[in-house]
Each structure stands twice: as structure tokens, then as C-alpha cells.
Amino acid sequence: MVKVIICIFKLNIKNMENNSDTLVTVLTASLIHEIHIAKALLANEGINSFIFDENITTTIGTAFVDGYKLKVNIHDFDKAKQLLLDLGTDNN
What we know:
Oligomer: single chain
Strand order of the largest sheet: 1-3-2
Largest sheet: 3 strands, antiparallel
CATH architecture: 2-Layer Sandwich
Number of domains: 1
Structural class: alpha+beta
Radius of gyration: 14 Å
Strand content: 15-25%
Shape: globular
Order of helices and strands: HEHEHEH
Number of strands: 3
CATH class: Alpha Beta
Helix content: 40-55%
Distance between the termini: 32 Å
């Protein structure tokens, strides 16, 4: 059952990434607070971002999570990446 849910989730993400407003990962971190800090920084600069895998640990445990991901629109990626690099918060 869990494998089916994970497959559906991955399929939905893949379908979303095929849209013209593609989301790309700008930051991966093992600690959720790092993601929230980066999200707040980007929001302050007018960049929308989305946290992926934030609640998955409560559902299936941390053994299956490859870090929390912060995603931005592909058109904002360069600016977002540079902001994070300037602050030294980049983990990729």
C-alpha cells in the first residue's frame, strides 16, 4: 500500500514537472528548519517557493527521505540559487 502511494506521488510530481511552469529543486537539506529559513529569505525577495517531503517523515519515517527539498519556478531558479549562495545556505 505504501509503495502504491509513493508511486502515485512520484507520478504526480513528474506530471507537474512536465508543465510549462516547471518547479526545480533549489535547495536540499536534512534539517527542515534550514528549508524554512531559505523559504522565508526567498519570499522576502519576491520568489515563491514550495517545500517538498516536509510531512513524509511522519507518514513513512526518515529512512525513505532523501532530504527535504525547496523548489522554485524554473524562471526564478538562477536568482534564488544566487541568493542562497550569497548567504552560504546552499547544500546542493
